[in-house]
Amino acid sequence: MAGNFWQSSHFQQWLLDRQDLQRERHSDLQVLTEEEYQKLMIYFSNFIQALGEQLKVKQQVIATATVYFKRFYVRNSLKCIDPLLMAPTCIFLASKVEEFGVISNSRLISTCQTVVKNKFSYAYPQEFPYRISHVLECEFFLLEMMDCCLVLYHAYRPLVQYVHDIGPEDNLLHMAWKVVNDSLRTDVCLLYPPHQIALACLHMACVILQKDYKHWFAELNVDMEKILEITRQILNLYDLWKNFDEKKEIPALLAKMPKPKAQPSRPPSQGAGSSQNDPTSQTASSQSS
Amino acid sequence: MNTSTSTNVSSSSVSHAQQVMNKLEDFDFPYCDEVTKYEKLAKIGQGTFGEVFKAKHRQTKKVVALKKVLMENEKEGFPITALREIKILQLLNHENVVNLIEICRTKATPFNRYKATFYLVFDFCEHDLAGLLSNVNVKFSLGEIKKVMQQLLNGLYFIHSNKILHRDMKAANILITKNGVLKLADFGLARAFSISKTSQPNRYTNRVVTLWYRPPELLLGERNYGPPVDMWGAGCIMAEMWTRSPIMQGSTEQHQLTLISQLCGSISPETWPGVEKLEFYNKLDLPKGQKRKVKERLRAYVKDPYALDLLDKLLTLDPNKRIDSDNALNHDFFWTDPMPCELAKMLSQHTQSMFEYLAPPRRRVVQQPHAGQPGHQKGMQPSAADGQYHDRVF
To answer: Which residues bind ATP (chain B) (predicted)?
Structure first.
């Protein structure tokens, strides 16, 4: 299914500008600094990535899930729905939309439990507190908030076309592909059309691999200013990421993050003490059986 | 969620969910309007995944069709078929494809367990082809039949070039506006397809398409199929323009294949190379020694030689040899006199909506006496039932 980006809801409804982002995030930015907000977004993108890899879905599903996640929180405060619940919900929906099939309920929840336990226990010392009913309910809110705009255009497809045009350059494609993956941790997917993101990532890959394709870029009929803007944002991400010690910083950030008024009996981020008598963990384990 | 697990949920976690939902109830959903902005007028159909209503916008008075999304399998969450239909219709924008206006929802309240219902909102079309064909008072001239088929093939050409398979071609899913514009509808079974690599064939479900319109490759278990599945349906529908009822009304898959063999000739590797590799080829009982009689059997109803030739090419057993939509549109049928002509004038004589859903059952009645004898059983001599009036929507 190809479709036309310029007629899509992605282009017509979901390309925002900086001011939109600032305005929509205003209430969260009263509590968090811009940098803290970005760090939380990186953290949850990593969580979605880890879930997706554990579930063995293709990268396209992970990318779509990440953008859904960003779309939801660009329209809503972090306190509306716990991002720990929104992340698996985005994977669940994206897997259906990208024709990867329905992820079984027990598998989704047990994967969340495994990933939280093995990779994110420094932030969530207790078991993953949500059940499938929460995910299914959350899916409704996600769909509504996105106005059922499901089809996304990622930078991967134009990237492959550009590299094909340049010539046989497997290394270049590989490197640029990784930069596109990383770009999902920035806001560029909310701000720029996919072909511009692809070009920026391709350009960065050329610089990293010291390949000179100046003449190829020179012949493009694109707004190079935009490409440079995207490049700057991805470079900023790398700067931020380099100095981001997740293990040390995240527990404090999660504690500071605006949260729903209602929390599971023991908020995971502040959870202390034994989980053995924790009723939510019992429920969670009964789900996976 | 199934109820048995929810009973052993701790009270604290229930109350948590409850509180989250209470919070969400206060949400304002600026991006998905409430369905109450439309007033339901009548139920007009039953789609693959829900009921269809005729409704009117309370302010603008615009008439629309509301299709309710049924949440049958709760484990699946929002149904994948509904996601496909939304996704595909948002992508497809064409004169001959039904237009999705928006998606609406009901408000989440304690009464529906905070579960909103979604509705797809479509431009309203006055008729469906099955409804029109079941009314003997509706008479199509050859030029008008050409116009119907031309629009149908145009729609198929568009969706196929966008890499979409409809997978539920049948007269009831072909809508026609009172101005005579044809719209392919009900994309509840549709999906995107890709041209498979030889090393890795596609594995799509073959349990699609209403039995009477299902092509032989699906009946034989093919899972790596493509646009020709819709072209077979187009052929069945084209024949129906003259016979006025579906031409092959099988009662089981086996029976359907028998009917197909009796019309299109025996299914064998000679006429269809590779058919022997299909899963059910050896498991089903395929009639042998049948001659192909598409033209001679349909000649009783279809006088136009070009029409017969196109029908013959659409109802080709081997999907690889079946005509595609592009070549069908270039067929002489559409480019010889009488040329395709607008339907608006003929339809203007019928001021009432005709939908299959509202029409009296016409088909099985005619079929039963001749169950084993396809071709002779069609509603060629309209029975009393065929001439009856339909419930009216207006």
So the answer is: 67
Query: Are A279 and A232 contained in the same domain?
Result: no
Q: Which residue in B1, B162, B164 is closest to A136 by CB distance? A: B1
Q: For residue range B15-26, what is the model confidence (pLDDT) as tens digits?
A: 444 444 444 444
pLDDT tens digit sequence for B338-370: 999 999 999 988 877 778 777 765 544 333 333
Cβ–Cβ contact A140 with B under 8 A: yes
Query: Is B163 part of the contact surface with chain A (CB cutoff 8 Å)?
Result: yes
Number of A:B CB contacts under 8 A? 133
Residues A191 and A71 in one domain: no
User: Cβ distance B104 to A147 under 8 Å?
Assistant: no
Cα distance between residue A3 and residue A19, in whole Å: 29
Report all structural domains of chain B as residue ranges with CATH numbers, in order of start: 27-123 (3.30.200.20), 128-386 (1.10.510.10)
Contacts of A8 in chain B (CB under 8 A): 90-91
Known binding residue B62? Answer is no
Bridge-partner residues for B175, per DSSP?
B128, B183
Domain, as residue range, for A62: 32-151+259-284
Q: Write out pLDDT tens, residues B140-150.
A: 999 999 999 99
Out of A97, A105, A264, closest to residue B13 by CB:
A264
Question: Known catalytic residue: B168?
Answer: yes
- Contact assessment for residue A180 and residue A237, using Cβ atoms and an 8 Å cutoff: no
Rounded CA separation A264/A283 (Å):
12
Q: In this structure, are A165 and A95 located in the same domain?
A: no
Interface check for B19 against chain A (CB to CB < 8 A): the answer is yes
**Does a structural domain hold residue A206?**
yes
pTM: 0.76
